[in-house]
Amino acid sequence: MNANQIQRILGSILISIASLSIVSNSSEAQPSLVQCQPPQPDEYILLVLSQTWDNHQTLQRSLSQQLQANLCQYLDDTVTRVAGFKNLENAKNWARYIRELSGLSAFVVRSPSPEEMPSNNSAYNPQPLGKGYAVLVDYFNQPELASQIRQILRENVGLVAYGQRHYLLAMHTTSQKAANSTLRQLSDRGFWTMVVDSRRVILLTRAVNF
């Protein structure tokens, strides 16, 4: 066997190994994610901040077979959407169970009601929020969360529009430190919270009454 034959054989082996590596990597890749679907009328769902495919699979193994769980994209987060709840109490119990079992954040989401906020607030006056930092809370069509946040912060809670969606406004400040502190305070209580550039936020009302 001459040198050219040996070189051709080695080249074939390397190509085969590379092909196997590509197949192996593709089989382990996470599926492409779609946007999470909203709940059906009279349905409650859970959104669990799973972030990774491994967390999703671990969570899925701990769920009842009657529940449907799939990985999807919510805003900028990778979450597990758990469907199959017909009453709020059952959904809340499962959210509590998931938090205690896995340590992952879990939130109950329901379909919008006809009384979707805001509807009867005379202070409704859309305007840019202005310079600084805004601490926003996703209320998942549950406006009563505003009352809970108001009790925690002992401040009025507003309503804003950001990225074509409505959020509760927990704080508007020029201090990044204060904004991050409030973010941690609310996140630790289980609220889906974010800090954003307030110049991109439209203030709808400074105080909601729920």
From TrEMBL:
Keywords annotated in UniProt: Signal
Residues annotated as signal peptide: 1-29
Superkingdom per UniProt: Bacteria
Identification of the protein by name: SPOR domain-containing protein
